[in-house]
Amino acid sequence: MSADEFKDWAWGVWSFPGESGKRIGHEAPFPLELPRRLVKPPSFPGDTALDPFVGSGTTMIASMAHGRVALGIELETKHCRLAINRINQEFGAKLETSSAETAARATLPCWTI
Ligand SMILES: C[S@@+](CC[C@H](N)C(=O)[O-])C[C@H]1O[C@@H](n2cnc3c(N)ncnc32)[C@H](O)[C@@H]1O
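A: This is the predicted complex of the input protein with S-adenosylmethionine.
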């Protein structure tokens, strides 16, 4: 991280806009800036970030955008599908949303990328 990022993120109170649940399609999405500031300083590219409450996938997106391996767990199949769709859109990936359903059918509320 840059010296300016360190000064800005390590001291003072963070201030950035929230995220709209309606826009994202999830009840409680984080603004991307929040996981970005939590993932980048304590890890390096190639490290793995685990989010056990994926929701719409914001932490996975922030992690992947900074070269981290993203690993996620989500209880609700519909949220898994939303996160996969957002990741596909963000990175031009072609992850199958059916993998979320397969995990749900196997009563294994868990998937990884
Ligand atoms: C506050 S939301 C996370 C929002 C996420 N940070 C985002 O930006 O979209 C919490 C998520 O945890 C999921 N969840 C709740 N209990 C869970 C559990 N036991 N295992 C896995 N996921 C769970 C919920 O379905 C919900 O999508």
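The longest strand covers residues 48-51. The two ends are 25 Å apart (CA to CA).
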